[in-house]
Amino acid sequence: DKDINKIMPEYVKSFQFENSLLPSTWIVVRIDGCHFHRFSDVHEFEKPNDELALNLMNSAAVAVVEEFNDIIFSYGVSDEYSFVLKKDSWLYERHASQLVSAIVSLFTSMYVLKWKDYFPHKELKYQPYFDARAVCYPSSDILQDYLAWRQVDCHINNQYNTSFWMLVKSGKSKSEAQKCLKGTFAKEKNELLASQFSIDYNTMPVMFRLGSSVFWDKEEKMVDEAEVAGKFRKKIVVEHCNIIEKSFWKEHYHILE
Ligand code: ATP
Ligand code: ATP
Ligand code: MG
Ligand code: MG
Ligand code: MG
Locate the Thg1 C-terminal domain: which residues (predicted)? Predict the structure, then answer.
Protein backbone atom coordinates (compact mmCIF):
# COMPACT_ATOMS: atom_id res chain seq x y z
CA ASP A 1 0.00 0.00 0.00
CA LYS A 2 1.06 3.53 -0.75
CA ASP A 3 2.01 5.75 2.16
CA ILE A 4 -0.15 8.88 1.73
CA ASN A 5 2.66 10.96 3.13
CA LYS A 6 4.72 10.09 0.07
CA ILE A 7 2.37 11.78 -2.41
CA MET A 8 4.02 15.08 -3.19
CA PRO A 9 1.52 17.79 -4.08
CA GLU A 10 3.95 19.75 -6.22
CA TYR A 11 4.60 16.71 -8.38
CA VAL A 12 0.92 15.91 -8.87
CA LYS A 13 0.06 19.54 -9.56
CA SER A 14 2.76 19.80 -12.21
CA PHE A 15 0.48 17.88 -14.59
CA GLN A 16 -2.12 20.60 -14.40
CA PHE A 17 -1.83 23.15 -17.20
CA GLU A 18 -4.11 26.11 -17.12
CA ASN A 19 -5.38 27.36 -20.41
CA SER A 20 -5.13 31.11 -19.75
CA LEU A 21 -7.11 33.45 -21.95
CA LEU A 22 -5.23 36.25 -23.72
CA PRO A 23 -5.00 39.37 -21.51
CA SER A 24 -6.66 42.65 -22.52
CA THR A 25 -9.26 41.01 -24.75
CA TRP A 26 -13.02 40.69 -24.37
CA ILE A 27 -13.85 37.16 -23.26
CA VAL A 28 -17.14 35.79 -24.53
CA VAL A 29 -18.54 32.69 -22.86
CA ARG A 30 -21.31 31.23 -25.01
CA ILE A 31 -23.57 28.60 -23.53
CA ASP A 32 -25.96 26.50 -25.60
CA GLY A 33 -28.62 24.02 -24.53
CA CYS A 34 -27.71 20.41 -25.32
CA HIS A 35 -30.30 18.60 -27.43
CA PHE A 36 -32.89 21.33 -26.92
CA HIS A 37 -34.68 20.21 -30.04
CA ARG A 38 -35.75 17.22 -27.99
CA PHE A 39 -36.03 19.14 -24.71
CA SER A 40 -38.42 21.65 -26.31
CA ASP A 41 -40.49 18.81 -27.84
CA VAL A 42 -40.79 16.85 -24.60
CA HIS A 43 -41.78 20.00 -22.72
CA GLU A 44 -44.18 21.06 -25.45
CA PHE A 45 -42.66 24.45 -26.14
CA GLU A 46 -44.82 26.54 -28.40
CA LYS A 47 -43.37 26.56 -31.93
CA PRO A 48 -41.49 28.34 -33.24
CA ASN A 49 -41.11 30.63 -30.20
CA ASP A 50 -42.18 29.77 -26.70
CA GLU A 51 -42.24 33.10 -24.94
CA LEU A 52 -42.11 31.66 -21.41
CA ALA A 53 -39.10 29.51 -22.28
CA LEU A 54 -37.31 32.61 -23.57
CA ASN A 55 -38.22 34.53 -20.43
CA LEU A 56 -36.81 31.68 -18.36
CA MET A 57 -33.53 31.85 -20.32
CA ASN A 58 -33.46 35.61 -19.74
CA SER A 59 -34.00 35.31 -16.02
CA ALA A 60 -31.22 32.71 -15.70
CA ALA A 61 -28.98 35.14 -17.61
CA VAL A 62 -29.91 38.02 -15.28
CA ALA A 63 -28.86 35.84 -12.32
CA VAL A 64 -25.50 35.15 -13.99
CA VAL A 65 -24.95 38.86 -14.71
CA GLU A 66 -25.85 39.67 -11.10
CA GLU A 67 -23.39 37.12 -9.75
CA PHE A 68 -20.38 37.95 -11.91
CA ASN A 69 -19.69 41.68 -11.82
CA ASP A 70 -17.20 41.40 -14.66
CA ILE A 71 -19.93 40.51 -17.16
CA ILE A 72 -20.73 43.75 -18.96
CA PHE A 73 -23.17 42.54 -21.58
CA SER A 74 -24.99 39.41 -22.61
CA TYR A 75 -27.10 38.40 -25.58
CA GLY A 76 -29.46 35.47 -25.85
CA VAL A 77 -31.60 33.76 -28.43
CA SER A 78 -33.27 30.32 -28.55
CA ASP A 79 -31.29 28.02 -26.24
CA GLU A 80 -28.08 30.05 -26.25
CA TYR A 81 -26.58 32.98 -24.35
CA SER A 82 -23.32 34.86 -24.84
CA PHE A 83 -21.75 36.50 -21.80
CA VAL A 84 -19.17 39.22 -22.42
CA LEU A 85 -16.57 39.90 -19.73
CA LYS A 86 -14.86 43.23 -19.47
CA LYS A 87 -11.54 43.46 -21.23
CA ASP A 88 -9.41 43.74 -18.11
CA SER A 89 -11.30 41.10 -16.13
CA TRP A 90 -9.13 38.99 -13.91
CA LEU A 91 -11.91 36.59 -12.91
CA TYR A 92 -10.42 33.15 -12.18
CA GLU A 93 -7.14 34.62 -13.39
CA ARG A 94 -8.62 34.23 -16.89
CA HIS A 95 -8.39 30.45 -16.65
CA ALA A 96 -10.75 29.23 -19.35
CA SER A 97 -11.90 26.01 -17.75
CA GLN A 98 -12.85 27.63 -14.44
CA LEU A 99 -14.56 30.61 -16.06
CA VAL A 100 -16.57 28.53 -18.48
CA SER A 101 -17.58 25.91 -15.93
CA ALA A 102 -18.61 28.44 -13.26
CA ILE A 103 -20.79 30.40 -15.69
CA VAL A 104 -22.44 27.43 -17.34
CA SER A 105 -23.14 25.63 -14.07
CA LEU A 106 -24.69 28.74 -12.49
CA PHE A 107 -26.81 29.28 -15.60
CA THR A 108 -28.00 25.67 -15.56
CA SER A 109 -28.89 25.64 -11.89
CA MET A 110 -30.79 28.94 -12.22
CA TYR A 111 -32.68 27.54 -15.23
CA VAL A 112 -33.78 24.52 -13.20
CA LEU A 113 -34.46 26.54 -10.04
CA LYS A 114 -36.66 29.05 -11.86
CA TRP A 115 -38.49 26.55 -14.05
CA LYS A 116 -41.50 26.46 -11.71
CA ASP A 117 -41.83 30.25 -11.78
CA TYR A 118 -42.30 30.25 -15.54
CA PHE A 119 -44.04 26.90 -15.93
CA PRO A 120 -46.06 26.44 -12.72
CA HIS A 121 -48.29 23.89 -14.45
CA LYS A 122 -45.62 22.07 -16.40
CA GLU A 123 -43.46 19.44 -14.78
CA LEU A 124 -39.74 19.51 -15.56
CA LYS A 125 -39.54 16.00 -16.99
CA TYR A 126 -35.79 15.58 -17.10
CA GLN A 127 -32.64 17.56 -16.38
CA PRO A 128 -31.50 20.05 -19.02
CA TYR A 129 -27.81 20.76 -19.47
CA PHE A 130 -25.77 23.26 -21.43
CA ASP A 131 -22.32 23.27 -23.00
CA ALA A 132 -20.08 26.32 -23.11
CA ARG A 133 -16.95 27.73 -24.67
CA ALA A 134 -14.81 30.82 -24.24
CA VAL A 135 -13.54 32.94 -27.11
CA CYS A 136 -11.40 36.10 -26.90
CA TYR A 137 -12.11 39.13 -29.08
CA PRO A 138 -9.23 41.59 -29.37
CA SER A 139 -11.12 44.80 -30.24
CA SER A 140 -14.51 46.30 -29.53
CA ASP A 141 -15.22 46.35 -33.29
CA ILE A 142 -14.65 42.62 -33.58
CA LEU A 143 -16.69 42.04 -30.43
CA GLN A 144 -19.56 44.03 -31.98
CA ASP A 145 -19.22 41.95 -35.15
CA TYR A 146 -19.48 38.80 -33.03
CA LEU A 147 -22.68 40.02 -31.37
CA ALA A 148 -24.08 41.19 -34.71
CA TRP A 149 -23.43 37.69 -36.09
CA ARG A 150 -25.51 36.14 -33.29
CA GLN A 151 -28.34 38.60 -33.95
CA VAL A 152 -28.24 37.97 -37.69
CA ASP A 153 -28.48 34.27 -36.89
CA CYS A 154 -31.50 34.96 -34.67
CA HIS A 155 -33.15 36.91 -37.47
CA ILE A 156 -32.51 34.32 -40.19
CA ASN A 157 -33.62 31.40 -38.01
CA ASN A 158 -36.71 33.23 -36.82
CA GLN A 159 -37.78 34.10 -40.33
CA TYR A 160 -37.30 30.52 -41.45
CA ASN A 161 -38.95 29.00 -38.39
CA THR A 162 -41.93 31.37 -38.50
CA SER A 163 -42.59 30.52 -42.15
CA PHE A 164 -41.97 26.81 -41.57
CA TRP A 165 -44.37 26.52 -38.63
CA MET A 166 -47.07 28.60 -40.33
CA LEU A 167 -46.96 26.17 -43.26
CA VAL A 168 -47.04 23.17 -40.90
CA LYS A 169 -49.88 24.61 -38.82
CA SER A 170 -51.83 25.26 -42.02
CA GLY A 171 -51.73 21.55 -42.86
CA LYS A 172 -48.50 20.94 -44.77
CA SER A 173 -46.23 18.10 -43.69
CA LYS A 174 -42.81 19.04 -42.31
CA SER A 175 -41.06 17.84 -45.46
CA GLU A 176 -43.49 19.73 -47.71
CA ALA A 177 -42.90 22.89 -45.67
CA GLN A 178 -39.15 22.35 -45.95
CA LYS A 179 -39.45 22.01 -49.74
CA CYS A 180 -41.51 25.20 -49.99
CA LEU A 181 -38.83 27.22 -48.22
CA LYS A 182 -35.76 25.67 -49.81
CA GLY A 183 -33.60 28.36 -51.41
CA THR A 184 -35.97 31.24 -50.63
CA PHE A 185 -34.63 34.65 -49.68
CA ALA A 186 -35.76 36.71 -46.70
CA LYS A 187 -37.92 38.89 -48.93
CA GLU A 188 -39.78 35.87 -50.35
CA LYS A 189 -40.40 34.49 -46.87
CA ASN A 190 -41.86 37.84 -45.82
CA GLU A 191 -44.05 37.82 -48.92
CA LEU A 192 -45.22 34.30 -48.20
CA LEU A 193 -46.12 35.27 -44.63
CA ALA A 194 -47.97 38.34 -45.88
CA SER A 195 -49.84 36.77 -48.79
CA GLN A 196 -50.74 33.36 -47.32
CA PHE A 197 -51.11 34.18 -43.64
CA SER A 198 -51.62 37.97 -43.53
CA ILE A 199 -48.64 38.28 -41.21
CA ASP A 200 -46.45 41.35 -41.31
CA TYR A 201 -43.14 39.93 -40.16
CA ASN A 202 -41.97 43.28 -38.83
CA THR A 203 -44.86 43.48 -36.39
CA MET A 204 -44.06 40.15 -34.75
CA PRO A 205 -42.90 40.29 -31.10
CA VAL A 206 -39.58 42.07 -30.92
CA MET A 207 -38.05 39.47 -28.58
CA PHE A 208 -38.53 36.81 -31.28
CA ARG A 209 -37.00 38.96 -34.00
CA LEU A 210 -34.12 40.57 -32.11
CA GLY A 211 -33.35 38.24 -29.20
CA SER A 212 -32.60 39.60 -25.72
CA SER A 213 -29.80 41.76 -24.37
CA VAL A 214 -29.05 41.84 -20.66
CA PHE A 215 -26.79 44.58 -19.36
CA TRP A 216 -26.16 47.15 -16.68
CA ASP A 217 -27.78 50.40 -17.64
CA LYS A 218 -27.43 53.79 -16.07
CA GLU A 219 -30.51 55.10 -14.40
CA GLU A 220 -31.09 58.43 -12.77
CA LYS A 221 -31.28 57.98 -9.05
CA MET A 222 -34.65 58.33 -7.38
CA VAL A 223 -35.11 61.86 -6.18
CA ASP A 224 -33.90 61.65 -2.65
CA GLU A 225 -33.27 64.79 -0.63
CA ALA A 226 -30.14 63.39 0.90
CA GLU A 227 -28.65 62.40 -2.45
CA VAL A 228 -26.68 64.64 -4.72
CA ALA A 229 -28.80 65.42 -7.78
CA GLY A 230 -27.65 63.96 -11.08
CA LYS A 231 -26.11 60.87 -9.56
CA PHE A 232 -26.56 57.61 -11.40
CA ARG A 233 -27.00 54.11 -10.19
CA LYS A 234 -26.85 51.05 -12.35
CA LYS A 235 -29.51 48.44 -12.79
CA ILE A 236 -29.76 45.30 -14.88
CA VAL A 237 -32.10 45.59 -17.84
CA VAL A 238 -33.45 43.05 -20.34
CA GLU A 239 -34.03 44.71 -23.69
CA HIS A 240 -34.70 43.63 -27.23
CA CYS A 241 -32.63 46.08 -29.18
CA ASN A 242 -30.92 46.15 -32.52
CA ILE A 243 -27.28 45.51 -31.63
CA ILE A 244 -26.23 45.27 -35.28
CA GLU A 245 -26.72 49.03 -35.60
CA LYS A 246 -23.64 50.92 -34.42
CA SER A 247 -25.95 53.54 -32.91
CA PHE A 248 -26.77 51.12 -30.08
CA TRP A 249 -23.11 51.02 -29.06
CA LYS A 250 -22.82 54.78 -29.37
CA GLU A 251 -25.84 55.34 -27.14
CA HIS A 252 -24.55 52.79 -24.64
CA TYR A 253 -20.90 53.76 -24.85
CA HIS A 254 -20.42 52.99 -21.14
CA ILE A 255 -20.82 49.23 -21.77
CA LEU A 256 -17.57 48.78 -23.68
CA GLU A 257 -15.60 51.75 -22.41
P1 ATP B 1 -27.22 20.92 -29.78
O2 ATP B 1 -27.14 19.99 -28.62
O3 ATP B 1 -26.25 20.61 -30.86
O4 ATP B 1 -27.16 22.38 -29.39
P5 ATP B 1 -30.04 21.41 -30.16
O6 ATP B 1 -31.13 20.43 -30.38
O7 ATP B 1 -30.01 22.13 -28.85
O8 ATP B 1 -28.67 20.66 -30.44
P9 ATP B 1 -29.86 24.01 -31.44
O10 ATP B 1 -29.27 24.31 -32.78
O11 ATP B 1 -29.12 24.53 -30.26
O12 ATP B 1 -30.09 22.44 -31.36
O13 ATP B 1 -31.32 24.58 -31.48
C14 ATP B 1 -32.10 24.67 -30.34
C15 ATP B 1 -33.48 24.12 -30.60
O16 ATP B 1 -34.27 24.25 -29.42
C17 ATP B 1 -34.23 24.89 -31.68
O18 ATP B 1 -34.18 24.19 -32.87
C19 ATP B 1 -35.65 24.93 -31.20
O20 ATP B 1 -36.36 23.89 -31.79
C21 ATP B 1 -35.58 24.63 -29.73
N22 ATP B 1 -35.92 25.79 -28.88
C23 ATP B 1 -35.07 26.48 -28.06
N24 ATP B 1 -35.70 27.49 -27.44
C25 ATP B 1 -36.97 27.46 -27.87
C26 ATP B 1 -38.12 28.27 -27.60
N27 ATP B 1 -38.07 29.30 -26.75
N28 ATP B 1 -39.30 27.96 -28.21
C29 ATP B 1 -39.36 26.92 -29.05
N30 ATP B 1 -38.31 26.11 -29.36
C31 ATP B 1 -37.12 26.38 -28.78
P1 ATP C 1 -13.60 28.48 -3.92
O2 ATP C 1 -14.72 29.21 -4.58
O3 ATP C 1 -12.30 29.13 -4.07
O4 ATP C 1 -13.56 27.01 -4.28
P5 ATP C 1 -14.69 27.56 -1.41
O6 ATP C 1 -15.34 28.33 -0.31
O7 ATP C 1 -15.57 26.68 -2.25
O8 ATP C 1 -13.93 28.59 -2.35
P9 ATP C 1 -12.95 25.27 -1.06
O10 ATP C 1 -11.49 25.26 -0.84
O11 ATP C 1 -13.43 24.69 -2.37
O12 ATP C 1 -13.49 26.74 -0.78
O13 ATP C 1 -13.56 24.50 0.16
C14 ATP C 1 -14.91 24.10 0.24
C15 ATP C 1 -15.50 24.48 1.57
O16 ATP C 1 -16.84 24.04 1.62
C17 ATP C 1 -14.78 23.84 2.76
O18 ATP C 1 -13.95 24.76 3.37
C19 ATP C 1 -15.89 23.45 3.69
O20 ATP C 1 -16.05 24.47 4.67
C21 ATP C 1 -17.15 23.49 2.85
N22 ATP C 1 -17.68 22.13 2.61
C23 ATP C 1 -17.70 21.48 1.44
N24 ATP C 1 -18.28 20.30 1.56
C25 ATP C 1 -18.64 20.17 2.84
C26 ATP C 1 -19.26 19.13 3.61
N27 ATP C 1 -19.65 17.99 3.03
N28 ATP C 1 -19.46 19.36 4.90
C29 ATP C 1 -19.09 20.52 5.48
N30 ATP C 1 -18.49 21.52 4.83
C31 ATP C 1 -18.26 21.35 3.54
MG1 MG D 1 -24.24 22.92 -29.36
MG1 MG E 1 -28.63 23.67 -28.45
MG1 MG F 1 -28.76 26.67 -29.99
Answer: 142-244
Does the pTM surpass 0.90? The reply is yes
Q: Is it the case that residue 226 has pLDDT exceeding 60?
A: no
Q: Mutation test of ligand 1: which of 36, 44, 122, 157 has the most ligand atoms closer than 8 Å to its C-beta?
A: 36
Q: Classify domain 26-152+207-256 at the CATH class level.
A: alpha beta
In this prediction, residue 93 carries a pLDDT of: 97
| pLDDT tens-digit map of 78-108 | 999 999 999 999 999 999 999 999 999 999 9
- What's the CA-to-centroid distance between 61 and ligand 4, angstroms? 16
The string of DSSP letters for the chain reads ---GGG--HHHHHTT----BPPTTSEEEEEEEETTHHHHHHHTT--SS--HHHHHHHHHHHHHHHHH-TTEEEEEEETTEEEEEEPTT--GGGGBHHHHHHHHHHHHHHHHHHHHHHH-TTS---S---EEEEEEEESSHHHHHHHHHHHHHHHHHHHHHHHHHHHHHHTT--HHHHHHHHTT--HHHHHHHHHHHH---GGGS-HHHHH-EEEEEEEEEPP--TTSPTT-EEEEEEEE---SSSHHHHHHTHHHH-
Instruction: Say if residue 155's pLDDT is above 90.
Output: yes
10 Cα: distance to centroid of ligand 2 (angstroms): 21
CA 145 to ligand 3 center in whole angstroms: 21
Q: Could you report the per-residue pLDDT of 49-84, keeping only the tens digit for each?
A: 999 999 999 999 999 999 999 999 999 999 999 999
